[in-house]
Amino acid sequence: MVLVDSHPPYTGTILRVRGRLELKCQLDSPDVSLMHKAISGTFATLRSQVKSESCVLTVCDSPVIIWPNKGVNATPEEITPNALCEDIHLWIQTDEQESFGKKSGKKKNKKSSAVSVINLNLMMEVTKPGPLSAPILSRTLQSSHFLSATLPMDCVVRTSCNDTIKDACERLVEALTHQLFEMEKVTLQHTKGTTLLVPEPLHFLLPEPKGLVTVVYPAGVPDGQLETQRKELHQQFELPDDRPFFRRANAYHFPNEPYRDGYLRNPHLLLTHPTLDDGKVYLVQGIYSYHHYMQDRMDDNGWGCAYRSLQTICSWFQQQGYVERSVPTHKEIQQALVDVGDKQTSFVGSRQWIGSIEVQAVLNQLLGVTSKIMFVSQGSELASKGRELANHFLTEGTPIMIGGGVLAHTILGVAWSETTGQIRYLILDPHYTGAEDLQLITDKGWCGWKGPDFWDQTAYYNLCLPQKPKLI
């Protein structure tokens, strides 16, 4: 089920190879043991193909083609087995470049982040050199079942700055072979009769120094039915049993890979932390989506800020794997408040505001998440809440919804000095109405650090502090 990459987790280059292998298996007998034997034989054939000279790796957005089992033969000729893996970057086409080649890519393609990714495609040569024999057709009449499935191969290996292309290819072939073994185990375990569940590889980035771990799950089986497997993984990697690490939502998102839903993730990472005397920074832990006015073809300008803050909080619980349900819409939020008896039926479809107490009720109703409420009689008192807010981000790490007067915001962190009492708040503003422009959002302060004067000094505020459930 598991493939562990033991290289240092946050440096170097990730080689990620993806491709599809066809699993085709004829079952001549309904006997379970014979069926399993036939399926295992098909997987053995696929492993042989991966190790054969017909296996080909092509580097995405480049002219580079590598035959890993043919003496690490490659094209262009400058790609040699002893060349460094990092040199492949020089051949990869970027948006700014108009042609392939070392000269055009050498400086523009150096990565600014600690981790860079080289994507490769797994392919198989179907033609062979030399004379070919004439095809022979035969016909056999018999009753049998034919199983067919497409295996979504997805392997990663990390390389250091000294690893050669030959080293990387050996490890990639080993990883592909190992993944086929794991896929075979999952397939046999979850095959019922002639129904085949496709094995699904997922990558998870665990806390240092464990690094990237690949797990194969049966596609179509919900996370709720895989708790036993997750418990085993938590024990194997000595992980705490009070938070998810191996749910599908925890799968590692590779750098520069766009999110399909269009929402921005963690815009605060672009910001520079404020400097306070003897101060420390306490931040939201994990990944969230930025929800704001006018998204989802919904005109909520002027009344939907608390709804959007709630959606950001819900996205945090969804993307950390605590819940499987999607982020609720405005109508679903309103219906939840009707269901708990907080609002009348006419509330659904209205443009009425909600506050921190309603946010608490919806989180409990839709997500089963409990929250603490902090009451502040006037905005000037928020400057004295540094210890409570710092402790929340240290222990819970969830976004906080704050409502006061007619405005709602999301607090993502605080910078606080225990000795001087100085404090700054990391604010995500749901009142933004523009496009998903990360630079604009951070430059204009829609996501940014604010001082105590950001709050209305005379207005009262309620803060909703969601608590993490304890589950795996």
Automatic annotation (TrEMBL):
<keyword id="KW-0378">Hydrolase</keyword>
<comment type="similarity">
    <text>Belongs to the peptidase C78 family.</text>
</comment>
<keyword id="KW-0788">Thiol protease</keyword>
<feature type="domain" description="UFSP2 second">
    <location>
        <begin position="42"/>
        <end position="259"/>
    </location>
</feature>
<dbReference type="GO" id="GO:0071567">
    <property type="term" value="F:deUFMylase activity"/>
</dbReference>
<dbReference type="InterPro" id="IPR049387">
    <property type="entry name" value="UFSP2-like_2nd"/>
</dbReference>
<protein>
    <recommendedName>
        <fullName>Ufm1-specific protease 2</fullName>
    </recommendedName>
</protein>
<dbReference type="InterPro" id="IPR012462">
    <property type="entry name" value="UFSP1/2_DUB_cat"/>
</dbReference>
<dbReference type="GO" id="GO:0006508">
    <property type="term" value="P:proteolysis"/>
</dbReference>
<keyword id="KW-0833">Ubl conjugation pathway</keyword>
<dbReference type="GO" id="GO:0005634">
    <property type="term" value="C:nucleus"/>
</dbReference>
<dbReference type="GO" id="GO:0005783">
    <property type="term" value="C:endoplasmic reticulum"/>
</dbReference>
<keyword id="KW-0645">Protease</keyword>
<feature type="domain" description="UFSP1/2/DUB catalytic">
    <location>
        <begin position="280"/>
        <end position="464"/>
    </location>
</feature>
<dbReference type="Pfam" id="PF07910">
    <property type="entry name" value="Peptidase_C78"/>
</dbReference>
<dbReference type="Pfam" id="PF20908">
    <property type="entry name" value="UfSP2_N"/>
</dbReference>
